Amino acid sequence: MDYIKELLLTDKYVPEEKAEDFLNSTIVFYSEKNYDVKELFNPNYFLLLYDLVINSESIAIYSTEKELFEDFFIGFFGAKKVNDNLFVMDEKNFYVLMEQNGIFLNMEPISNNVKNDYIVSGSIDNILKNNDSWEFYIDVESRTINAKFVSKEYRSSKNQFGLTSLENKKLFGEVLVFESVNRNDFKNFYTKFFTPLDEESEKSIDFLKEIIKEDEFIVVSSQSINENELVLFVESTLDSVKLKKYAEERRMEEGKIGTYNYYLWSKGSYPKEIYLYFQNDELIFSNITPDRMGIYLSEMPRFKNTKYFDQIKNNHQFHNITIIDLSNYISKNYYGSVDSWIVKSEYLEDDNYTLKINMR
């Protein structure tokens, strides 16, 4: 936005206040294209704006700054002015009406009925590839972009879960996905995460169904952005007697880290060995070695103390949560110290399916 303002202030004298008023005015795109969530959060905002303009059947700009509109349309988007009422951009004609209440492209003037509670709001279809209609609302607060997509039509087939039982857990990784899984479906869930599986590993996963006590439980799959470290956290009590007997029969390597016991669970199910770390009500499958796992379990904050926990409303029953923590990745790879993360949560609220995204 600062770049666009500088562009408007170049070449001719334009009061900065006028430039800001124009850039803060309400713009409504009547688009012919269905956008998905990834496209709306394209970090290349020029390409996103260009795409919105070129794929809109009509556009309403509620500003009286007519000259700034021309400077913006020509200087920023490269449109050509044919006459006062016709501009051409990428071979598409835009017929422009300059009225007292705004500037209207390829449409008759209409009044502004858009609420200004958000910097961006509108309607969109098919964001979850299910041909449903959604309303969306986007604002910015404390350097965080907050977006909410709401649908009366869409419903998820995934189980619901709460977060209260996870507040004091150590959940780590740069990409975390939270779901509730049925015990009978856990094998499929596991094999999608740790592949390929050898014959012995297949048998060990079948055995897990016998020792996991809950019929439905929360699973958090996490990994580093480069996918070198994989962690599958399972919140469930287990039959420790059966597990110990199973491990002894197979002479599994064992050990202890703090309150966690562990076994070398599988030597061939992944390019790295898979360990099973467990205590009273949780299991952790991971290719992280015990010495490094000990560091994570001792140094990582509890889930409720993470910098992104406050972005998740804990009074909801969720269908899915995805967290991408970019802070450690930036620190390790670019030697910078920046709080940066993305949190996506899905839940029902007032009988509306809500997809909420927070980006910092």
How many helix segments? 10
| Low confidence ranges | none
Global outline: elongated
* Overall mean pLDDT: 83
Strand segment tally: 19
Give the gist of this structure.
This protein has 360 residues and is α+β, with helices and mostly antiparallel strands. 25% of the residues lie in helices and 35% in strands. Among the domains are: 2-114, no CATH class; 171-299, no CATH class.
Question: How would you describe the overall organization of this protein?
Answer:
The longest helix is centred in the middle third of the chain and has 13 residues, at about 200-210. Among the domains are: about 1-115, no CATH class; about 170-300, no CATH class. About 25% of the residues lie in helices and about 35% in strands. The protein has helices spanning about 1-10, 15-25, 35-40, 45-55, 65-75, 185-195, 200-210, 240-250, 290-300, 325-335, and strands at about 25-30, 55-60, 80-85, 85-90, 90-100, 100-105, 120-125, 135-140, 145-150, 175-180, 215-225, 230-235, 255, 260-265, 275-280, 280-285, 320-325, 340-350, 350-360. Strand 14 (about 260-265) and strand 15 form a beta hairpin. It is elongated. It has about 350 residues and is of the alpha+beta class. Strands 7-8-9-19-18-17-10-11-12-16-15-14-13 form a 13-stranded antiparallel sheet, sandwiched between helices. The mean pLDDT is about 85. It has ten helices and 19 strands.
